[in-house]
From TrEMBL, chain B:
Pfam families the record matches: SBP_bac_8 (PF13416)
Chain segments carrying region Disordered: 26-52
Keyword Signal recorded: yes
Leader sequence residues: 1-22
Record carries keyword Membrane: no
Name of the protein in question: Extracellular solute-binding protein
UniProtKB keywords: Signal
Lineage: Bacteria, Bacillati, Actinomycetota, Actinomycetes, Jiangellales
């Protein structure tokens, strides 16, 4: 009793009341659909007549689908390539830009510009640029230096790297801004001290900048991994999973189950698997990197 | 930030993948029988004089004022003739990706149009009302062309929709590109060897694709099935529970070999191998494609969506080679929501009869419809296949012959021969899955010079067989 009164007097009740609208909205629009998806993954439904409970059949169906492992492989490939190219590029850009004496604002704006372009417009533009004929935009430009023509998205081996290139271009700007903001928080006296110790530019970046940014770097890494595991817009609009299923990703597979074949049970089952995988991976990641974190 | 909070944050972010999908299916209360999904409480009785309201699809948008007014005038006419039925017109147009969500959300009209290709899957999934009793009361119920009505029936012969227009697959060609290649546009190819030869000549003369093939969103499988039929093959054999997949048949092997030759030996298929229905139409109308396979009604879309130059358009029948060769058909069917009440079903079939079927069976209605189309500069006269019989089609064509505004002369190679070609329905089981499987096969042949056609077909056949066995 005393504890309850203390909780009320301590502002617990008013906090809860203030939070309530947000909790209700969040529960209805976020947690309720998630709960529904878990339920649907155990049912066969056409969304009209009463659903039939099918146990784990949907999961079995999804795991037996020959495209399941293809989509997992493709998603891992996309994530790997996106990390390889997409993760260091914004960091390098941010560090270089932070060293500039003038025009920093202009370069920040230029770096951020692709983020302003609506994703669908950007992808469709790039699909046009990727025209595989000799007169395609990229092939024409590369032709001037004696390269190509390349098949780009028309060939199974080059389709995924082409998607990663576009995604990196489209998304790097936002991360650049995060790094630029974080870089302003690096204490100047650390650089001064490093300089006194005789450190050059590379040593200053390696021993001062990167350790100071590690909290942000850890977060952007996991956010990028989670985002790239859910890649959808690029393969959907650019290649629709082709050629030869080379760009079918897990999320595209979920979309196809639901909206191309009307199999909502399979779609939600695969969604549940993906969510579980990402949740476990995130937890493990934070556990492993706990000692590196700055917060 | 505490470790627990961080974990929760990460889990929440991961779970967003779930909410995206589930939000579309979160209609927690399944619509009840009698609700009709439109907020209209059905009477459940079906008495002739009881008031009933139904919503109907494909009201033309406000930007197409002439056809919209004509549609609304027909609605008024119907309501005068049926005072107990109120019609709520809706601009809804069929979209496979939103259909189920709209059905569940109650925003799908009581009656709606959709293509032949989706009919069987929707019947299997219970997404259409059984309207057998209502259709059998129509005076022309027994007159339907059986091979056309089949697309709207289940194995037991129950009827779930009414076919309102039908087409056969044909070979579309660009007459101007034919001339540029020194070919006679009035003498289109009559064999697949000639198709290959002409494609090569067009590619050589114009630098564009002499022949192009759809390969995405199940269209690759759809067109490969068309080619297979034209070469005497079949994708599935048997009926009922005994259907087996035969994707590795000789016709499909020949069809893929033909594509391989045109692509890799002749280099006659251009540089884009990821076409779907919309993008291949765009490319054709833009003069980037010499020939391609599609439904004979595509000209309507080429005019309204892609502003094609009518002088450039030509249409002929697909060459049929092989003992059992035939042409794949397609078209539009109109169905009713599965949760419609008896009264709504009866009213819906009355509307379908009045709005869609009278154009085919009554001269006055046919003329009124044709005049509205012509006033809106919409194409009229594109060759169609008979919903009932050849004689009836000829008769209804004759009613509106003076109003035809499409270059019919340039479509005569098709119109004169299509009725002589045997019509073959789509694969009866899991057609869309089969098409999806074949998309990858077509893409492989068009993008990989060393693609092993036999191995690809063997794998595809095994995958589709598993799906058929799973039921």
């Amino acid at each position: 009793m005393n504890a309850t009164i203390r909780w009320v007097r301590g502002g617990g009740l008013s906090t809860l009341l203030l939070l309530l609208p947000l909790l209700l909205v969040f529960s209805y629009f976020a947690w309720f659909p998630i709960g529904r998806a878990v339920v649907m993954s155990l049912q066969e439904t056409n969304l009209v007549t009463d659903p039939v409970w099918v146990g784990l059949d949907n999961f079995r169906h999804v795991l037996d689908d020959p495209l399941f492992w293809t989509s997992v492989r493709n998603t891992l490939y996309f994530t790997g390539l996106a990390l390889l190219f997409g993760y260091p590029v914004p960091l390098v850009l941010a560090v270089v830009m932070s060293e500039l004496r003038r025009g920093k604002g202009l370069y920040s704006a230029l770096a951020y510009l692709p983020v302003v372009v609506p994703p669908v417009v950007a992808v469709l533009l790039w699909r046009f640029f990727y025209d595989a004929s000799q007169t395609g935009v990229f092939n024409t430009i590369l032709g001037w230096v004696g390269l190509g023509p390349f098949a780009w998205i028309q060939d199974a081996s080059s389709a995924m790297p082409s998607l990663v290139l576009q995604a990196t271009w489209a998304n790097a700007g936002a991360t650049v801004l995060i790094y630029l903001a974080a870089l302003t928080g690096v204490r100047g006296d650390l650089y001064d001290a490093a300089e006194v110790d005789g450190a050059g530019l590379w040593h200053k970046i390696w021993h001062v900048t990167l350790p100071q940014l590690r909290g942000v770097l850890l977060i952007t890494l996991i956010l990028q991994v989670i985002a790239t595991f859910q890649v959808f817009t690029e393969p959907y609009l650019m290649t629709n999973g082709g050629p030869q299923n080379a760009t079918v990703t897990v999320l595209l597979q979920i979309y196809n189950y639901a909206f191309r074949f009307g199999d909502y049970g399979a779609a939600t089952a695969l969604s549940v698997l993906l969510a579980l995988f990402l949740a476990v991976m995130s937890a493990v990641y934070f556990r492993l990197t706990r000692s590196w974190s700055t917060t | 930030m505490s470790s627990t909070r961080r974990h929760l944050g990460a889990v929440a972010a991961a779970a967003m993948a779930l909410s995206l999908l589930a939000a579309c299916g979160s209609g927690d209360e399944e619509p009840q029988a009698g609700d009709g999904g439109n907020g209209q409480q059905g009477d459940g009785g079906g008495g002739e004089d009881e008031a009933v309201t139904i919503s109907v699809s494909n009201l033309p948008p406000a930007t197409e004022s002439a056809t919209r007014e004509a549609f609304l005038a027909r609605v008024e006419e119907f309501e005068v003739a049926n005072p107990n039925i109120t019609i709520e017109p809706s601009e809804y147009e069929w979209d496979v990706t939103t259909f189920a969500a709209q059905l569940a959300g109650g925003t799908l009209p009581t009656t709606f149009e959709f293509p032949f290709t989706d009919g069987q899957a929707m019947i299997e999934r219970g997404q259409l009302a059984d309207i057998t009793a209502e259709v059998q009361e129509l005076p022309y119920a027994d007159a339907f062309n059986p091979s056309v009505l089949e697309v709207a029936q289940d194995d037991a012969g129950n009827i779930y929709a009414i076919p309102t227009s039908a087409y056969g697959m044909g070979l579309h060609y660009n007459r101007i590109m034919f001339e540029q290649a020194g070919l006679d546009p009035d003498a289109p190819p009559t064999s697949w060897d000639e198709v290959r030869e002409y494609a090569d000549a067009i590619a050589e003369a114009t630098g564009q694709a002499g022949f192009a093939q759809m390969s995405q969103n199940n269209t690759g499988g759809w067109i490969l099935t068309t080619l297979t039929y034209a070469l005497g093959g079949r994708m599935e054999e048997g009926t009922g529970d005994d259907v087996t997949a035969t994707l590795d048949n000789e016709g499909t092997q020949q069809a893929l070999e033909l594509l391989r030759q045109m692509r890799w030996e002749d280099d006659a298929m251009g540089d884009n191998f990821l076409f779907d229905w919309g993008t291949i139409n765009q490319a054709f109308a833009a003069g980037q494609v010499g020939m391609y396979i599609g439904g004979s009604d595509v000209y309507n879309s080429l005019v309204t969506e892609n502003s094609i130059d009518p002088n450039s358009y030509g249409l002929t029948v697909l060459p049929l080679e092989g003992a059992d060769a035939g042409v794949l058909g397609g078209g539009t069917i109109v169905g009713v929501r599965p949760d419609a009440s008896e009264a709504e079903r009866a009213a819906a079939v009355k509307w379908i009869d009045f709005f869609y079927m009278s154009k085919l069976t009554q001269e006055e209605a046919a003329l009124a419809d044709a005049e509205a189309l012509v006033a809106a500069d919409a194409p009229l006269g594109t060759p169609a296949l008979p919903i009932f019989g050849a004689e009836q089609l000829a008769e209804s064509d004759a009613w509106v012959a003076d109003l035809v505004n499409v270059p019919l002369e340039q479509m005569m190679p098709f119109k004169e021969s299509i009725l002589d070609q045997p019509l073959v329905p789509e694969p009866p089981v899991r057609a869309q899955d089969l098409y999806a499987e074949l998309d990858a096969v077509v893409q492989a042949v068009l993008t990989d010079e060393n693609a092993d056609i036999d191995a690809l077909l063997e794998t595809a056949n095994s995958n589709v067989s598993s799906l058929i066995e799973a039921g």
